[in-house]
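Hi R.,

Here's the chain you asked about this morning:
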Amino acid sequence: MMTNKHALLSASSAHRWLNCTPSARLEEQFPDTTSEYAKEGTLAHEIAELKLCKHFIEPMGPKTFAARMNKFKKEELYQEEMQEHTDTYLEYVQSVVHSYASRPHIVIETTLDYSHIVPEGFGTGDCIIIGGNTLHVIDFKYGKGVPVDAVDNPQMKLYALGALHKYSMLYEIINVKLAIVQPRLNNISEWETTTETLFQWAEQIKPIAERAFKGEGDYRPGEWCNFCRAKSQCRARCETMTALEGFGYMKPPLISNAEVGEILVKARHLKEWVTDLEEYALSALLSGEEIPGWKAVEGRSNRQFEDVDKAFEVLKSAGYDEAVLYERKPITLTAVESLLGKKKFSELLDSYVIKPPGKPTLVPESDKREAITAQPKAAEVFKD
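And here is the predicted structure, written out as C-alpha cells:
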C-alpha cells in the first residue's frame, strides 16, 4: 500500500537537491502542504494499485473488486476519467509482463531503500518487474503539467538502485529499463541502461548527497526551484532574478541578438518567481502579517443565480420559451474521446480529426521539439 512518509532526500526531489544541495534542509522551515492535485494523484495511484493487484498479485472475484473500487468512487476527488488513465497504465504493465515467455517477478507499490547511496534515502516504486537478467522500474504519473522524461531521470535511477539493492541477491540483473507512464499527456517515456552505469552514477552522487543531507554547499537557482517550498523567500533566487537590473546599464542604444538571448535565459523563470512572491504575500496578509506597500482586497466578482433551475422555472412560468434560455453547443474533442474511449474514438472518428500547426512559441534551445527554420514558409503557415 502507498505510504505518506517522505525522505529528506526523496527520489522525487533528487533533481533539486542534486543541483542545489542546501535546499533540502532549507525546505524544512516550511510546512509540507498537500495540494488538491497531489491528493488527486494519490487517489489515481490507489486505483491503479488495485487494478494491478487484481491482475498480478491478489486474485479477487468481481464482487470483491467492485466493492473496493466503489470505495474510491465515493471519494470527493474521484473522476470517471481515472478509470481510462489507470487502464492505460495497466495495459503498459501487461505489455511488459507478456513480453516474457514465462511469468516474471512482479512487485507493486514497494518500498525501495537507497540509503547506502543517499543518507536515509527511500521511496516507493509503483511497479517493479524482473525477468531474465532485466529489471523494469515503471512509474505512474497522473499529473498533466509537463511531460516527464525517463531518460537519465535521477528519480528513476534512485528507484532502480533501490530495487537492485533489494533484489540483486536473488536475481542476476544486468540490464535496467526505466519507464514513466503519464497517460493524461499521452506520454510514455522509456530509457534503458545497465547496472554498471547506474553503480558508476551512484558513486558520483554520494558526496553530493552527503552535502545535501548536511545542508552544505551553494544555493543554485534554476528550473528545479519550481517545486521547492522555499522558492518564494529564497534569497539566492531573489538575487538571480533581480540581477536583470544590471542590463539597464548597457551603453549601446540597441542590444544585440546575443544580449537578447542572455537576458531571456536570465528572465526565463522571472514570471514564475513573481507569481510565487504574489501568492506568498497574499497568504501572509490574509494570515494577519504585514507586507509594506501592499494589502489584500476582495477581487472582482460576477453575478450568478443562487439556484439557476428555480430562476429558469420563474422565467418559463412567465412565458419565456425554454429554447431561448439554453445554448446548444458540441462538447470538445477531448470530452468526446473520454466518452467513447480511445479505441472507439479512433475507430469512428480518426478520419475526421486534424491537427493544425501550433502557434510559434519561443523555447530554450534544450527543448526537444524541432525548430522552425524556413522563415518565409513559417510566416505563410502562421499568418492567419
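One quick note: The chain has a mean pLDDT of 87.

Cheers,
M.
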